[in-house]
Predict the 3D structure of the following.
Amino acid sequence: MEGGISPQAIFENLNKAFTEGIFLTDVGQHQMWTTQFLEMNKNKQLITSGGLGTMGFGLPAAIGAQLGNPDKMVVCIAGDGGVQMTIQELATAVQLELPITLVIINNGFLGMVRQMQQFFHDKNYSGTCLRKRKSCEGKCNFDGSNIPKCCPPYTPNFIRLAESYGAYGIRVTDEDKLSDAFEEAKKNTDSPTIIEILIDFKDVVLPMVQGGKALDNMLLETNY
């Protein structure tokens, strides 16, 4: 997905909309952006699995946080890859009528792994494109030159998936619509709300240090 909303813009709007509450992350690039851009204060709490790499942590943890704090707003920030590892727990959240806001930052990839392949493995990409089909073989080099021209539709459609569970789904492709989406989620107090936000697949987390390297090997720019 090319030319999407910037991570910084997502969090600028989220910070304005949610000045208090419990915030949780899944695992991936969105987790790093959350720690970089989420503004914290005495009325906010951040729950994340840190460096354990437990993809799928976010949504079940958000359910627990909402059950334990029924009077607080709970916002789960996840990626399109990790959230699919436990997306079935949306059924639990619907059954319990939990007003969780699930923000899915969708770049069409397992973004953190792809970023490591880009920086540390000579751009030998494998197993990270979530739109890849058998018929794609040999047609895509992930440099953006033939995206989205040759790419099949993303699977799943998160908005239809939300609706199939009985949750409320909103897709945001325009930065100007972010504020409205967050306000809609705050008004929905009887069921979970999924807000899917499309970002550019070339957005990366910086700075970054390769595992096992010293801090003076920190990467401060992309190698595109």
User: Anything to note?
Assistant: DSSP finds seven helices and six strands in the chain.
